[in-house]
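Is zinc ion placement plausible here? Inputs below.
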Amino acid sequence: MAKIHNLGFPRIGKHRELKRALEAYWNTDIEQQEFTKQITQVREQHYSAFDLLDYAQVGDFSLYDHVLDASFLFGNVPDRAKVDNTVENDVDAYFRIARGRAKQNDCCATHAGEMTKWFDTNYHYIVPEFSSSTTFMLNCESLISEIRTVRSRGFEVKPVVIGPLTYLYLGKAIDNSNKLELLEPLLKEYKLLLQTLAKQGVEWVQIDEPALVTELSDEWQFAYKYAFEYLNDSGVKLLLTTYFGDLAKNLKLACALPVAGVHIDAIRAPHEVEILAAKLNANQVLSVGIVDGRNIWRTDLNRALALLKPIAEIKGNNLWLAPACSLLHCPVDVTIEQNILAEIRPWLAFAEQKLEELEILKKALTNTPSNSVFEALQNNQNIIAARKASTLATNFSVQQALSQIQQSWLTRSDPYKVRINAQQALLNLPRFPTTTIGSFPQTAEIRKTRREFINGDITDVTYENALKAQIANCIQQQESLGLDVLVHGESERNDMVEYFAAFLNGALTTQFGWVQSYGSRCVKPPVIYGDISRASSMTIQWTQYAQSLTQKPVKGMLTGPVTILNWSFVRDDQARSLTTKQIALAVRDEVIELESIGTKIIQIDEAALREGLPLKKSEWQTYLNWAVDSFKLCSSSVASTTQIHTHMCYSQFNDILPDIQRMDADVITIETSRSNMKLLDAFTQFNYNNDIGPGVYDIHSQNIPTTEAIKALILTASEKVPAQQLWINPDCGLKTREWKEVIPALRNLVEAAKQLRVDH
Ligand code: GLN
Ligand code: ZN
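Reply from A.M.:
I modeled the complex. Tokens:
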């Protein structure tokens, strides 16, 4: 009989209990003892999801990040996190790397580990730091103790660890040394870990190697062979676990490794399941990731069974079923949602429901499934059929709008040089124009008012007036700071994607559908279930009000179609490119309306454009083509005098600059202050034409940049980009900062621009 297991479960808790416990502890609202108690309760939720499984995964729960856990497990901890007199316990040392620490009682500050996105997801991990002098030392007590706890509940455990090559792949060599030179010492600790687990009587270990779905050089391919030969015969069975894509050129390699089983993502690589089943030997387990871990749709169980049945014939007991990847990327439980349209709700499955689906599949694969299994399958079939037949997903006017798109809509009517002159004639901005990225502090007061509004405690009018007061204050502050291009401050937005989704036909937002983004931070991705169109104006009211308060230009602020797509759960019944095109048309409607009310500058943020790049480089261009086209579709139908801005967060640009240029935004603002303008080099080399606002204020830090520091950054920038192309702005939005930080920082920013104007 097939077995079922899970690769990882959301750890944030059904009601974000982990977030609450973490933040209370960090704010010193609770002591360590209480913190430990609360964490134990969150873990209990984790354990309750083991009931259906044949193997309980242990080691996927994390207080902050599972990659950081691996760094601690293998003793790769930067010196600055080592326990010292001022940090009295391991938990604090761990949080010190996760979050950094401000200067305290004469003790120096610690900078946090760098954060970056986990493959092509919106989850951020803490980047392991390597150098040629890195050493490793296994420290597995807490893993072993968790194994004991889970076993004592009567579960068969399957510890989960990140594989040695993926761990190296994810890290950064701070001295530019070759990370693979660390493989040998790292493997020694892995072997020790596996032997220790074997001594504990562990049978299976899930060893996560998602790097196998990327394109690997010969050197890395060879390293895989070497590593798994080395770990062979450690006394446990290894389940080589791959996800987020197909193995493609690494398939042969994966099959040749001496492991007891292989897991494959059958959602993204259905075409490889049969090949693997044929290639693996009879004793090897094939774990088929048959339930989507990256999306929230109910699985079509009959379709899944059609794929699984022939595999079950070949593999028999050696067929395992699992979600395609960890369920970390899904919300916990759909049954607690109260506001989802009754017709749509059955279409959705969150993490808990996905495990139930696995159980049905397992039972359906037995020789004599019970009646209740047939019923469950029938029920599932009804739901799938209802979704297919539903008129909610189809909107003929959207289909019609799509068919009416003209090629000319994708290009501005004049080239940048002509446009920028026309815009300047109208805007009359000084050299080095100053602006911000859009949001101003989301104060506790704003969040409280929004909560009251959502709970129905205050009326629409009260809420609207409260937001207007925020906008008026924001405009007044910017006026007195002397900024040149103003914003309304985005106080009405809980989130830059969720806010827009609420105005789109074909999309819904959830109440509790939280997904961990990093540490205690979560996002609530909207669900795009049907054809998208703009239901009503999205930003007009706020922009218009803000503009009525000032003579200076106020930017209209929108989130771009690619970012809305990448930060949503999207429909799985049509290409992502087509969904993006629909979103682009909706954004385009808003752009046109903003222009019609007299908005002279419109910013369309594409923070997640880069993040959507496929994991295999050979697939990049196809994505970039439709992504850039979608941006152009929403932004090009304005007069030459209307200035289009775009903004992108921590991005490397060197390898995608032709595409950035093709977007043809009049102004692009980017995050550069931490890199000391290094990111601008790519723009210089490419001879990038349009205006650029390289960030001169690191908004992720509480530090207030001095006028001198900002001037120095601008001067560095003007060595790389002609001064007349430069804008002066912070790195990103200011929503996470406080007014008392923002005011002096922006005052210095404006002052720096003023001083430099004298000489330029
Ligand atoms: N306009 C958004 C803001 O200022 C942009 C945020 C982002 O790019 N992440 O908050
Ligand atoms: Zn940003």
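Short version: Residues 437, 607, 647, 649, 732-733 surround zinc ion (ligand 2) (CB under 6 Å).
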